[in-house]
Design brief:
Elements: H1 3-17, H2 21-24, E1 27-34, E2 41-42, H3 43-56, E3 58-71, E4 74-85, E5 90-102, E6 105-113
Parallel strand pairs: 1-6
Antiparallel strand pairs: 1-2, 3-4, 4-5, 5-6
Length: 124
């Protein structure tokens, strides 16, 4: 199993259990994590906070990976995520995540997704 496949499996487990510890264990001590809406998180404490924050946004969430590839120390994952936000609204969004792999650990995580899916339309 590649590091990318381990990452995908650990993320799905974290989503179903609401426990990111197995996912965080895949991160290197000096990991950096970033997405489109927050600052950059650093280190394993930052990874723990990043994934706890991610999980706290949802009542339920499940990422389905449609494509993935690992080569030359990088993993790329294309995904669709569906679930419910904490306020009860349904959510369905898609994106791409990239990991940089160092010694079998995630040295960097970046994710790009449709952030408009989180914005509730204003009624006219």
């Amino acid at each position: 199993m590649t590091t990318t496949e381990e990452f995908m499996s650990a993320l799905q487990h974290a989503e179903s259990s609401k426990d990111p510890s197995g996912l965080v264990a895949l991160h290197a001590g000096d990991v950096t994590l970033s997405n489109l809406t927050t600052r950059t998180w650093k280190g394993t404490d930052g990874a723990q906070a990043f994934w706890e924050s991610y999980l706290s946004d949802f009542e339920t969430i499940h990422s389905e990976f449609t494509h993935h590839h690992e080569s030359g120390g990088q993993g790329v994952m294309e995904w669709n995520a569906t679930g419910k936000l904490k306020n009860g609204d349904d959510i369905n969004y898609r994106g791409v995540s990239i990991i940089e792999i160092e010694g079998g650990k995630v040295g960097a995580f970046r994710t790009y997704y449709d952030s408009a899916a989180f914005v509730k339309p204003v009624a006219e």
